[in-house]
Design a protein that fits this description.
It is built from 3 helices and no strands. By secondary structure, it is mostly helical. The model has no long low-confidence stretch (mean pLDDT about 90).
């Protein structure tokens, strides 16, 4: 009986390694996106605090000189929120691209695995057929050998 050898084994292992690498990349991109989201939330909180301070100042006309500084701080906080929102959007896009790459590599690896399984089944069936042929040949030989000598000459 010959040994089973899947000729695309190296390619299958390569695709499995690429799949693992893509999963690591996806996890990294997701981690970066979570960091960006946390920073965005911090910026939003800061913007809310600055807006609250500005509202408190604007309610008191006696501190009108401080309005300009508070208004500048409010504008800067808003710009920071917008910048971080853009960072989160780009991080989200990178995560989606990484996910698509992972799905592609997963499909390639799964396709090769299914092919290997099909080849294994074919190999097993072929071996079973060969074994059956050998057993049939042995049975015929035994039958002819064990047959009554009187019947052999007729």
């Amino acid at each position: 009986m010959k040994l089973f050898r899947f000729r695309l084994a190296r390619l299958m292992h390569l695709k499995q390694a690429e799949k693992k690498q893509r999963a690591i990349e996806l996890a990294h991109e997701q981690s970066l996106m979570r960091q960006c989201e946390a920073q965005l939330e911090d910026s939003r909180q800061e913007w809310a605090e600055v807006a609250e301070s500005y509202a408190a100042l604007s309610a008191r006309p006696s501190v009108a000189r401080q309005w300009d500084g508070a208004l500048l701080a409010l504008g800067a906080a808003k710009q920071e929120v917008l910048r971080r929102t853009d960072l989160v959007r780009r991080a989200s896009e990178r995560v989606e691209q990484a996910r698509e790459r992972l799905v592609k590599k997963s499909r390639e690896a799964e396709t090769l695995e299914r092919l290997r399984q099909r080849r294994w089944r074919e190999y097993s069936l072929e071996n079973l057929r060969d074994e059956q042929k050998e057993n049939d040949a042995k049975a015929v030989t035994r039958f002819l050998r064990d047959r009554d000598p009187a019947e052999q000459h007729t």
